[in-house]
Amino acid sequence: xxxxxxxxxxxxxxxxxxxxxxxxxxxxxxxxxxxxxxxxxxxxxxxxxxxxxxxxxxxxxxxxxxxxxxxxxxxxxxxxxxxxxxxxxxxxxxxxxxxxxxxxxxxxxxxxxxxxxxxxxxxxxxxxxxxxxxxxxxxxxxxxxxxxxxxxxxxxxxxxxxxxxxxxxxxxxxxxxxxxxxxxxxxxxxxxxxxxxxxxxxxxxxxxxxxxxxxxxxxxxxxxxxxxxxxxxxxxxxxxxxxxxxxxxxxxxxxxxxxxxxxxxxxxxxxxxxxxxxxxxxxxxxxxxxx
Length: 291
Hints:
By secondary structure, this protein is α+β, with helices and mostly antiparallel strands.
């Protein structure tokens, strides 16, 4: 049988003890189906079980036509930045507690994986955010959110916000969350931000504990260029992407955030539905369903 995906890679970033047996099971399922399997250095223990050497990230990027991420949403974020941003579709096996991005449970792996490799799946395109600091060459990528925060409890920072070079406001707050629709069910949700459907082309800005009584979340076009200028004399601000990087910011520095040039193709098994995921993960209607 000819499959939609014939070269598949496995990866993880979790230390969960369930990872190895699940990775072994996936390896057996797919090799028995005639799929060429690769795994990166995150799954080194597979070498002694499969008698096969792990592959370099470069080799996986050149050969794999699907990446299976085993873990929670943190694993999916890492794999999405590392492999998904290079054009490899990503499918998630969910070992996490919430798992908005990883949606195959371990107890349904065999049937769901076989459906996917046969070509029965749902494509879900997501965009990355890109952040840069004026005067520096490096660009940073985030799938969920770019956050500017104080890096300390109960410590305010001061900044000016511009959108497409238009002044919006001066803010004193614990920080600012700038998120994609994908990130609307992550950190932003904890701060009271809106849930944005993945198909909506928008970026959300959410001040964190603002020193103001009339500051609300702001939703702008995904074509917008967002500029934050650090203005406080005593600012000790930090820039982070998906809680991954931690770059110190100084007074006067200007951070630009916009939609990135690359995108992520998520692969979901048949039956996936965003609102169904919200019901399951966030407990929507749970009281009514339990009556």
